[in-house]
């Protein structure tokens, strides 16, 4: 999905956790049914870690929950409880950003895709989600 890259700002409900992320204006967000995402109704898009920046003293307001393999680092605000981003098991080198936590005005389109977190291994292999945390370099000038 090609679209203009912009800086999106966002964070939690009480605004103690704030961040910025460089991502397209049109994104693919993943609706996962694993036990954690399903209960939180978390739908997120994945970016390379170097495109995500936690702002100010936001780190002071974060806590982390892990379960199962402990590969995913589910961060949430200690004050309001909102998970505005986390480190996903599928992309430990990236960041999953809750698209509903992006401040209004920069997302132009959100396509929702399904990730079967209850059958994690097969969904991981079928979706290609692992590639989303890799920096995609534009083609060299003159190549197609």
Automatic annotation (TrEMBL):
Single GO molecular function: carbon-sulfur lyase activity
Pfam family name, one: GFA
Residue span, CENP-V/GFA domain: 8-121
Top-level lineage group: Eukaryota
PROSITE patterns, A to Z: CENP_V_GFA
Keywords noted in UniProt: Metal-binding, Zinc
Cross-referenced PANTHER family: CENP-V_GFA DOMAIN-CONTAINING PROTEIN, CENTROMERE PROTEIN V
Record family assignment: Belongs to the Gfa family.
Name the UniProt record assigns to this protein: CENP-V/GFA domain-containing protein
Species of the source: Carya illinoinensis (Pecan)
């Amino acid at each position: 999905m090609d679209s203009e890259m912009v800086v999106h700002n966002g964070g939690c409900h009480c605004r103690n956790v704030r961040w910025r992320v460089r991502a397209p204006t049109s994104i693919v967000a993943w609706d996962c049914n694993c036990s954690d995402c399903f209960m939180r109704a978390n739908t997120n898009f994945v970016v390379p870690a170097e495109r995500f920046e936690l702002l100010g003293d936001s780190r002071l307001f974060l806590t982390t929950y892990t379960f199962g393999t402990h590969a995913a680092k589910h961060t949430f605000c200690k004050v309001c409880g909102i998970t505005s981003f986390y480190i996903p098991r599928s992309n430990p080198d990236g960041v999953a950003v809750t698209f509903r936590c992006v401040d209004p005005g920069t997302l132009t389109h959100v396509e929702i895709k399904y990730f079967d977190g209850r059958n994690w291994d097969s969904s991981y292999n079928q979706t290609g989600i692992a590639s989303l945390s890799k920096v995609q370099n534009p083609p060299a000038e003159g190549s197609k």
